[in-house]
Specification:
The complex is a heterodimer of chains A (196) and B (177). In chain A, 67% of the residues lie in helices and 0% in strands. Chain A has 196 residues and is an all-alpha fold. The longest helix of chain A has 25 residues, at 166-190. The termini of chain A are far apart. Chain B is 71% helix and 0% strand. The mean pLDDT of chain B is 92.
Chain lengths: 196, 177
């Protein structure tokens, strides 16, 4: 049955319309969770607010389990679901650059749109920066093409790379997340901040 | 201190409930479109779209744009992520309106000026924009959506983003605490 668009159960235009609705839900949940505030987002890095970690890992696990169960029930063909490719070098270097951008700017791309939508001017300026950054990458593409394309490993799953079944890896991820949630709750009590 | 009271009185959703809801949205995206959520891809589409209109000849020669064209046929603005991100703006606005959080302001620590906050936001944005292209997606497209489909690259990018931000947090502490 799923994915609906890939199996041509819905038309391309219906798919785009659903993208818009899914986006509304995405933006709504981000804002309701407090992802429109950079000082709340940055809280995880100083211990005073663990909302990023809690929402992020709960979401990743919910979607991962959902996909595994949907596949088990025959509702979705996981072979037709896009798995991000692994280019080892650029995944690490790109991630490191994004990490610096995160602690400096206080937003990531999705949350900056969310912040800007409720009137955060710093989020709007961050979006301006995003456009400049993407343009710099595009204009100087030849300079970093080598790094961008290096160490291509195909489309491996982390479970395969570790020699585990998807289910067992999922279970270990849940246990790891519970440990991190406990640490985040502890840090919020240990490093409370009243004035943010 | 006025900002203090504002955040204190503002009521956010329980983060674990928020996480489950966000996970269901991500699951819906995969079920409908066979792909996860994203954000930086919509910016790339907009830039490719604008470049094609403003400088059609130069864009044809650009390897960055031709690589995008290979995987996205037709109008670069008529892509899944562009429609999704338009939705994010609407959804964020609706949520803010319901919660009474709509307000034009520069949010920053009392220890720094608005001007400094905006300079850092600009610099952070430039780095994040560049990094999202190199890393083939940002926190949404590469890290979150990649993790849901157990992509090795997604987990690596997630660890690189959060690990670096934790490692650099000390140097930027005056801007936040």
């Amino acid at each position: 049955m799923g994915p609906l668009a890939v199996n041509e159960i819905i038309s391309e235009n219906t798919n785009l319309f659903l993208a818009f609705l899914i986006g509304i839900a995405f933006g709504f949940v981000l804002e309701q969770s407090g992802f429109s505030s950079s000082r709340k987002l940055a809280g995880i890095f100083y211990g005073y607010d663990g909302v990023v970690l809690k929402v992020f890992f709960t979401a990743a696990i919910t979607a991962m389990l959902g996909l595994l169960f949907f596949s088990l029930f025959g509702w979705i063909d996981l072979d037709l679901v896009y798995v991000n490719p692994t280019y080892l070098t650029s995944a690490i270097i790109g991630g490191v650059i994004m990490g610096v951008g995160f602690i400096m700017g206080g937003y990531c791309p999705g949350t900056s749109f969310c912040g800007a939508s409720i009137g955060k001017i710093d989020a709007l300026v961050f979006i301006g920066g995003l456009f400049i950054g993407v343009m710099i990458f595009g204009l100087g593409y030849k300079l970093w093409e080598g790094v961008y394309m290096a160490a291509f490993k195909g489309f491996p799953k982390i479970s395969e790379s570790l020699g585990l079944s998807d289910g067992l890896f999922g279970l270990l991820l849940i246990i790891a997340a519970l440990g991190m949630f406990w640490a985040a709750e502890w840090a919020e009590k240990r490093f409370p901040r009243e004035e943010y | 201190m006025s900002e203090t009271k504002e955040i204190k009185k503002t009521k956010y959703l329980n983060p674990y409930i928020g996480g489950v809801l966000l996970g269901l949205v991500l699951l819906a995206a995969n079920f409908v479109a066979g792909r996860g959520l994203g954000a930086s891809g919509a910016i790339k589409s907009t830039i490719v779209g604008a470049a094609t209109v403003i400088a059609p000849e130069a864009s044809e020669k650009s390897a960055f744009i031709s690589e995008f064209r290979e995987s996205h046929q037709g109008n670069p603005m008529k892509t899944w992520l562009v429609f999704e991100m338009l939705g994010v703006i609407v959804g964020g606005f609706l949520s803010g309106a319901i919660a009474g959080r709509l307000k034009l302001k520069v949010e920053h620590s009392p220890k720094i000026t608005s001007r400094k906050r905006l300079m850092l936001a600009l610099g952070g944005g430039i780095l994040f924009g560049f990094g999202s292209q190199l890393g083939r997606g940002c926190t949404s497209g590469s890290a979150l959506s990649g993790m849901a489909v157990l992509s090795l690259g997604g987990f690596i990018t997630m660890m690189a983003i959060f690990g670096t931000a934790f490692a650099m947090a000390y140097f930027f502490r005056k801007n936040w605490i």
